[in-house]
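Subject: for your reference before the review

Hello V.,

The reviewers asked for a structural picture of the protein, and I figured it would be easier to keep everything in one thread rather than splitting it across files. Below is the amino acid sequence we used in the manuscript, unchanged from the supplementary table.
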Amino acid sequence: MRAPFFHLMRRSPLDDLIRHSEITQEGIELLAGVLELYFAGKHDEIEPIAELLYQKEHEADLIKGNIRNHLHKYILLPVDRWDLLNCLKEQDAIIDVAQDICVWLNLSHYSIPVELVDKFMELFHVVKTAVDEEVQTLKLAVEYIRHPFTKRRLRKKAKLMLKEIHYHEHEADIIAHRIGRMIFEQQRDPVGIIVLLRLSEFIGHIADHAANAGDRIRMMIGR
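And here is what came back from the structure prediction:
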């Protein structure tokens, strides 16, 4: 097995992968504030929080670049490098979508009915849970990868959490479908329909990427 030689490397890319996931998680926390302000009609107060999110996205990009640029220097890896890179790609897509949402909301100030606000916040809560679980699962997986003989229980726990991520992705799809139906039933303004449908689609994509990252984690602990 390759795992026992893990500590021969000068630095583990898995440490950077975890840090990248944490920054992504912080970006989603900031997005929560942006959405709350938008739904409250406080559009002028969004920009300062959005700027913090943009900074997080840039920080995540720097870590992503560092991993990609130095990964070839590692002679020994405890996981398949393509699984690691694909996990990184999906994590990065999460914060990219969060940034896209901020840009979209800044371009489209639109008043949203209370009923839809409640549904949008329900959707975001489910999506955020999926992201939180992906970060926690990655940490469990890395700990198992480092100690495969003494911490096998972590592998089982991580695999259970991966099921939870996919459950929340499915739950997000259902809520997004309900939001779409409500939009077409309640809205008559074509611009409003486009704005709200796109926002629902954006938020749902976050859960999709969290689940995809989870699939790569599954590959890393399943070999």
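For the response letter, the relevant points are probably these. Residues 189 and 195 are 10 Å apart (CA to CA). The two ends are 10 Å apart (CA to CA).

Happy to draft the paragraph if you're swamped.

O.
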